Amino acid sequence: MVTDTLALPWLAEPLTEALARARSHALLIQGPAGVGQFDLALLLAQAWLCETPVAGSGWACGQCGSCKLFQSRTHPDFQLLIPEALREPLGWAADEGESSKESKTKPSREIKVEAVRQMLSFAQATSARGRAKVVVVYPAEALNTVAANALLKTLEEPAGVLRFALASAAPESLLPTIRSRCQPVPLGLPAPEPALAWLQAQGVDGAEVLLAAAGGRPQEALRWSEEGLKAAAWAQLPARLARGEVAAISDWPVPRAIDAMQRLCHDLLRTSHGAPPRYFAPEALPAPGPSAPLQQWALALQQAARHEDHPLNAGLLMESLVLQGQSALQGRRRAARA
Ligand SMILES: [Zn+2]
């Protein structure tokens, strides 16, 4: 990390502030997902471990031995607690290739107690480089109850060389005892300008449309773009669903399709109350109509979202949801014409 260039430029201020305001040995970064929580936790960790932090900002220098070790992911005083399922997406997969060989079971989405126990022995060992030892926990809500209770024991200990950066998009679901031992670090949505500039620098076409689609969360927008979502497809979604075209979403993963319809439904409910839409451009939406069919659609979508991981028949489900959406959208058109 060079001091004036962060991979996610909107983290500069939150980073400086968190470093300056940290009073506890455990910080809990909280706010929406997709805006760089994990990245901020790593930046904090590197800064705490850095041997020659930048005067004034407290940022990691990016040059010292500790920073080099951190960047090569071999720092002996750093531990990462993330679910197995996130290792690859976050770029922290084990090099040995053991995961592919060893098990055919799905990697866990939980942070398991075994991982926390391993961390506890790390916590008890002396610091290898004689400075801080840092543990990053992400996302903290992935700690199962047993793991959370095991973690609590180290959080309770008086502040020493061991520091924690936890991050969570659902802090309310954490054990209250964990929350109360952490100093909250709020991380909200970035301003649109740096978020858009960043997306464009990643080569995302239609960045503005996708950033809005993702509710202002740039990492989410990038992921959608990488998964093949095109800005034009998003902009055309309301019109195509109003025509009952299941093909508009049939090749999307089911959770994404349901989520997209939920966002559309949410925007339609907003505009019917005179509020501006959040995820779609105003001109992409039909005129407000009766809200009863919309509310029915919202309920059906909510139910479907609960079972999205194992829909009995994804095709039938999509058809039924699009059909309900169509009548909700057409009701609005009729009302607009009358
Ligand atoms: Zn350094």
What does this structure look like?
The protein is α/β, with parallel strands linked by helices. Helices cover 49% and strands 7% of the residues. It has 15 helices and five strands. The chain has helices spanning 12-21, 37-49, 65-71, 84-87, 98-102, 113-124, 145-156, 176-180, 192-201, 207-213, 218-226, 231-242, 254-272, 292-306, 314-337, and strands spanning 26-30, 78-81, 133-137, 162-168, 183-186. Strands 2-3-4-1-5 form a five-stranded parallel β-sheet, sandwiched between helices. Helix 7 (145-156) links the parallel strand 3 and strand 4 (162-168). Helix 6 (113-124) runs parallel beside helix 7, helix 9 packs parallel to helix 11 and helix 10 (207-213) crosses helix 12. It is elongated and about 65 Å long. The chain starts with 11 loop residues before the first helix and ends with a helix. Zinc ion (ZN) is lined by residues 50-52, 60-61, 63-64, 66-67.
Topology (SSEs and partners):
Elements: H1 12-21, E1 26-30, H2 37-49, H3 65-71, E2 78-81, H4 84-87, H5 98-102, H6 113-124, E3 133-137, H7 145-156, E4 162-168, H8 176-180, E5 183-186, H9 192-201, H10 207-213, H11 218-226, H12 231-242, H13 254-272, H14 292-306, H15 314-337
Parallel strand pairs: 1-4, 1-5, 2-3, 3-4
Helix pairs in contact: 1-2, 6-7, 9-11, 10-11, 10-12, 13-14, 13-15, 14-15
Bound molecules: zinc ion.
